Each structure stands twice: as C-alpha cells, then as structure tokens.
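tool_call predict_complex ligand=pyridoxal-5'-phosphate
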Amino acid sequence: MENKTNYRPTKAVIDLQAIHQNVVSLRHYLQPNVRIIAVVKANAYGHGDIEVANAAINAGATMLAVATPDEAVHIREHFDYIDILVLGATPASFIPYASRENITLTVFSAEWMEQAQEYLPLSKQVKLHVKIDSGMGRIGITTKEELLTLYSVIQKSSQFVVDGIFTHFATADEEDDDGYFEKQVCLFKELLNVLPEKPRLVHVANTATALVKDSSLQYDAVRFGISMYGLLASSYVGELLPFPLKPAFSLETELVHVKKLKAGQSVGYGATFTAEKDCFIGTIPIGYADGMIRRLSGQEVLIGGRRAQIIGRICMDQSMILMEEAYNVGEHVLLIGQQQEDEITIDDWASKLETINYEIPCVITARVPRVYKS
Ligand SMILES: *Cc1c(COP(=O)(O)O)cnc(C)c1O
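tool_result ok
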C-alpha cells in the first residue's frame, strides 16, 4: 500500500512485518483448526485498520472484528470477501447494509430481533453472533431464559443465521482474580449447553485468554487484539507468553529548531522550566493536539542514541526538549520506538500516564499520519 506524501516530519511508523509475524506466531501456537479473528476496532488500535487487516489476513486471520457498524463499512469498502464481525451493539437500521454486504452482527436482545425483522428485506439473510454476558457486565445475555427467548425469535425466521456465539472475560489478564475467570467460563458453558445445536463459531478468547489459559478455551476461534500489535495485555501475560511479540508502533519526528538557553532563561507557557545552567533546547513539532497530552511533560525521547527530556508545558502543536548538545535542525527524534540499543515503549508512556498500553496508540490523533513499513 502506498504512503501519501506528508510534509510535517511527525509520524507514526507502523511495522506491518511485525503484525504479520505476531499473527503467524499465534497461528503456530493455536490448536489446529482454530481460526484467528483479527480485532481491528478503533482504527486497529490506532495503527490503521486497512493496512493492519491486510497484514493479518495475509498471515492467516480469517475474520475481522470491529466495534461499530461504521468501522465495518470502512473495512468492507476495502475488502470484498473477508468475514467481518461487529462486536458492539448495532442499530437495527444497519441491517439492510449488513445483509447486502455480509457483515455479521452481534445480537443479545429479543426486542432488537423484533426490530431487525422489520428492517430485513424479504428473502435476504443476515448472520448473527449471540453475545453472552458471563460477567463482564457490558452487553449480552445473562440467563438461560433470556437465551431461549432470543432463540425462539431467531428461529421464527430462516432469514436469521446464527453463525456464532461468544463471551468476553473481565479478568483474563490477571494472575489472581478470586476465581472470577472460572466463574465466567462455567456460566458460558452452562448457557452453551442449553442450545439445540452449537453454531459454527464458538469463541471466548481474547489475547490474554488465548495465550495464557487452557487451550480448550480456544474453541473454534480466538479474538486476537492487543498482542497482534506486539503489546502485552499485562505483566502477568508477559511472564507466561508462549512466543515473542514484536511491537509495531513507533512515533517519530525531527528537530525544527535548536537554540542555546542561558542560565536563568525559561521555556514554554507559564515559563515553568528555567535553565539552571547554559543548555540546548530543541523544538519538536508534536503537541497535545497529536495526542501527546500535557501530562507527558517530563517523558524522555531518543535523539542521537541518547535520552532527552520533554521540558516545560507541552503546547498544542509543539514541544521542547532539553539536549546535551546542539543537534542540527532535522535531527531525528524518536518518541516511541527503538534507536540503537535504547528503546522507549508504549508501556513507558502508559506508566507515565498511569494507564494501560491499549490507550496510547488509540489517543495518537488522526493528525499524525500513519506510514507503513513492510
Ligand atoms: C477489544 C475486544 C477484544 C480484543 O481484546 P484484546 O485484549 O485486545 O485481545 C476481544 N473481544 C472483544 C469483545 C473486544 O471488545
């Protein structure tokens, strides 16, 4: 896929080979015949949905999962055949599109099914995956009665095809959860047993479940998200990881200005940084409008194989770094990624921001072009 021209040097570089390799490693690790559903919601966790989907499909993923109908439409515009599952709730008004374009929808309420009937054109079919809420408390059916009621509506019409059933775990990436995970597994199995026949695709495992739990939970498919991008769901998952992962996301820019600051001079809004001794300040064209939020002040970047700190307040479009020497304008600055022996990771940003790694690439805004390396 071709990268378009960008004039600003700030960009996220996505290593599609890493994504490909992570999916291939998973495929080799899974039991034979277990399918890989590549989770590419939220613009593939900020990495770029079309390019990531392409890499994942080439590596053996046979279905894509997104969160919203609009995300499904975007993917379908680029891929004619691949199965696409919308994991979240969908308005019934999306049914005509879903039916025509073969988008599989998640269903968890009988009322929704009744509405769906009104939207579904005569003699057309729509594929459904039934969602069980076994303890996540988000969307899904929680009891046998609800499940049977839902099925009775579904079975009234041959236009509804139940292609799958699934659930999602709340604590799969935790070492000690007081048995919560097991309770979810039990409830799911109980509900599954109520069904007259199992649909084609039973799937419960997200990344953490697939990598560190009992292989029987792989069922017919696993939903591979965070580790496809080379990130760990938690440090517990990291300890038990069955194969190495390669991160795909790096964030880089260049110096656009370099100046010498005399002791006593200050930098940025509020003049919050004051030089204690003469020093060099570099300006980089990235700010909070790019998702590098102000709380990242103090975070380090890599320049010329060394670390430099972001100082003062991060502006909307620019930030300043404190440098040990006067690098040239145009010098490469790495905010996330590996330079020589040193590396700044998405996890470093996550711990600085007291959040999880999932959130970091998602909040790097669309102003930062994603460019692809393969
Ligand atoms: C996001 C999501 C996943 C992927 O989870 P990871 O932890 O990134 O593997 C799987 N299933 C559902 C229902 C999701 O919403």
